Amino acid sequence: MSVDTTPAYAAVPARPGPALAKLVFTEARLLLREPVALFWGLAFPMALLAVMGIASSGPGARLGGLPLVAVYEPILIAFVTVAFAIQGLPAVVAGYRERRILRRLATTPVGPVRVIAAQLTVNLAVALVATAGILTVGRLGFGVALPGQPAGFLVTYVLAATAMLGLGMLVAALAPTGRAAGVIGTMLFFPLMFFAGLWIPRATMPASLRQVSDFTPLGAAVQALQDSMRGVWPHLSALAVLAGYAVVFTVAAARFFRWD
Amino acid sequence: MAVIDVEHVRKQYGEKVAVEDVSFTVEEGEIFGILGRNGAGKTTTVECVVGLRRPDGGLVRVLGMDPRRDGHELRQHVGVQLQESELPDKLTVAEAIDLYASFYRTPADGRALLSLLGLADKRNTRYRKLSGGQKQRLSIALALIGRPRIAVLDELTTGLDPAARRGTWALIEDIRRQGVTIVLVSHFMEEAERLCDRVAIIEAGRVADIGSPAGLAGRLGGEQRIHFQPSGPLDGRLLADLPEVTSVTRTGGTVVVTGTADALLAVTSALARRGVVAHGLRVEQPSLEDAFVAVTSGAGPSTEI
User: Which of A213, B47, B127, B203 could form an S-S bond across to A219 if both were Cys, CB 3.0 to 4.6 Å?
Assistant: First the structure.
């Protein structure tokens, strides 16, 4: 090893960028290096939307008075939220704890909280991009109207995203390892998306099943998003269910989170 | 000037006492070793010093600051390399250095630091693809990127091959030459002996002894051992009667003499007077490891934290 002393310890004159911005940028870059996550969270739902759009052109491809593609837009918006908040986020955060990355950050001036903030920001941002993509493709490709009640849509989206990110952080808090968090996330995907109507849309669910769906986070979210798309303000009961989950999951995640 | 002052620190987890009573000071510019068996309390002690844990009792001052209360400011000046701390698999070396540089007000030049650590040609390599030694050197680079006044390095060379270990030691001496005070946590005696100005031996949550490696070895490590093959017949009593010699044993053609620090001169003089030549003469000085064993063997089995 060379003993080239002086330069390494010279201070760099340039001011470093704000650490949080750098962390967000870094986490975004790392996410872009995960082709499987991007396929699952971005490409796959888009492809599914296109399939539904093409199927909608045939006669009888309507559910509850709506073309299939319009029925599936809120379901796919729920899908991308789950993909990033429940399947992506917890595995990364629990992995950072398992590999003592959070602990190391605790010894630096920025601390470990900001890397969590960066993870939340990045995952929310990609979910938003995917949501915007779904609305755009639906509008331009298949003539599905943009949400007629944008404020209601936005409120629902914020509550649903908070509930899902909160649940993701709760999984990250409770899972012992990154791998375990990934498995738990995948196990949660099925019931969450079942009640959101991915396999049986809510309009075709038996009444009793739909009543159960009303009280699940993504059942409520899909119902409220659907109402907003039709141009009516979502049912307060659906928003209350979402808000309840958002509060419970977030508080529980904060309560149980461990840094090491 | 003492840059780290630890007085009667105590820390327990539930019923288990990890650190009973630890006191020491670290002077500016020195390499200070904290030695102990696994579970002796050295990592907990260091975690209290860097502010990751709050001691249940006692006082910690680092650069005159309280690590818990003034942690934010202190972390600008203290770089820490933790045991078994990793990085995201797909982060490259250069990205890791740039990211950590952004945490500090006046960071070092990351490019030059990577050159110093022999990682210049690995800038675009992802963390997962680095060898164990490269990961360790990157971890040290991250501890130094903020141009700390104090660097705390925990189990610096664990898991490295001998060549990488020696390279890392040379690096630590370089860093110290640049004015950084270094706290080295280790259970590896050869490392401490080679690098440290002073060491504290921690045993069962207490400081068992503190001093320079050579001082501890001389005081606690016991006797010199002299091995040789005499060129001719030799009466063992001739050597055993010397005041500097405590024992003489013979195995095959080899004679082993133990005695005080002056035994070598006495033995060689006595042999010369008899015209006996000592072939294959070899002297074992008491080492820090001997001192460590002497200090820690009295206690019972260590408890894991």
Answer: A213
Cα nearest neighbour of A96 on chain B:
B88
pLDDT of A17 reads 52
Q: Note whether B99 contacts A11, CB cutoff 8 Å.
A: no
Residues B48 and B24 sit within 8 Å (Cβ to Cβ): no
Report the gap between the CA of A122 and the closest CA in chain B (Å): 16
Which residues partner with B57 through β-bridges? B10
Between vectors from CA B245 to CA B241 and to CA B249, what angle results, nearest 5°?
A: 90
Task: Determine which of A2, A3, A12 to mutate to test the interface with B (most B C-beta atoms within 10 Å).
Answer: A12
Residues of chain A where predicted confidence (pLDDT) is lower than 50: 1-16
Pairing of strands B278-284, B254-259: unpaired
Higher model confidence: residue B149 or residue B156?
Answer: B149
ipTM tops 0.90: no
CA atoms of B128 and B147, how far apart (whole Å): 26
pTM of the entire structure?
A: 0.84
* Rounded Cα distance, B191 and B201, in Å: 14
Find the CB nearest A5 among B82, B88, B177. B177
Residue-level pLDDT at B298? 57
* Closest-CA residue of chain A to B109: A12
